[in-house]
Specification:
The chain has helices spanning 17-21, 37-46, 60-68, 110-122, 183-186, 192-201, and strands spanning 2-6, 9-14, 26-30, 52-56, 72-82, 88-93, 96-98, 101-103, 127-142, 145-158, 172-178. The chain has 206 residues and is an alpha/beta fold. The protein has 2 domains: 2-68, no CATH class; 73-201, Alpha-Beta Complex (Nucleoside Triphosphate Pyrophosphohydrolase), CATH 3.90.79.10. It has an 8-stranded mixed sheet, with helices on both faces. A 3-stranded antiparallel sheet has the order 7-6-11, with no helix packed on it. Strand 3 (26-30), helix 2 and strand 4 (52-56) form a beta-alpha-beta unit. The two termini are 16 Å apart.
Length: 206
């Protein structure tokens, strides 16, 4: 299943109708041809009282590609960084806890973007990237235009001892090392896409 978020609402693409039927809050739509997709996506964007919409389709990659065509598509990368104490690097931006991430520049690899953005947003050097975690997707409006962003997340390790420094020009007011046992308390208020990264990483159980 592919999950696409708009704030805390879910637009899911799946090839299994049971994914939809097991979600009591979901509206499900069977996709039989490409022209079915745009009306369902527009329904999702316009009906904010609907928490989840599932597109049930046989071909997930083709359905995802068709959804991308409806938006201005952007790519980003970020990191879930742990230190020697096992703590996780978290930032606080626009009244929400978040993970450091940012837009992919032309010519950059996903890994280069992830390392650069974490370094810039948290002021840390000497990061070690060791594996990908997952890709997340979210939708957002900006200046009367709708965007779809794919963020590729990587697990990283920091061997140093310098404290993180928030990049305030990017709206970040705090950058802290957070003990793992504190994560469940804050994950109730992070964006759903970030919650998904923690679940996929295995640090936090479902």
């Amino acid at each position: 299943m592919i999950k696409i978020f708009f704030n805390d609402r879910l637009l899911a693409v799946t090839d299994n109708w049971e994914d939809c039927s097991s979600d009591a809050n979901a509206t499900g739509c069977k996709i039989t041809k490409k022209s079915d997709i745009a009306p369902v996506v527009h329904y999702f964007l316009e009906n904010i009282q609907t928490p989840a919409v599932y597109l049930v389709a046989d071909d997930l990659p083709a359905t995802l590609s068709a959804i991308k065509e409806l938006f201005v598509y952007r790519e980003a990368a970020g990191g879930m960084v742990r230190n020697a104490a096992g703590e996780v690097l978290m930032i606080f931006r626009y009244n929400r806890w978040d993970l450091p991430k940012g837009h992919r520049e032309p010519g950059e690899s996903w890994e280069e973007t992830a390392l650069r953005e974490v370094e810039e947003e948290c002021g840390l050097c000497g990061l070690h990237l060791y594996r990908p975690i997952t890709d997340s997707y979210h939708l957002y409006p900006d200046n009367k235009q709708w965007y779809m962003k794919c963020t590729r997340w990587f697990a990283m390790y920091y061997h140093g001892c310098m404290p993180p420094v928030p990049q305030t020009v990017e709206g970040i007011t705090r950058a802290v090392w957070m003990p793992v046992h504190c994560l469940p308390a804050i994950l109730t208020s992070v964006y759903a896409s970030i919650n998904e990264v923690f679940m996929k990483s295995g640090i936090v159980e479902r």
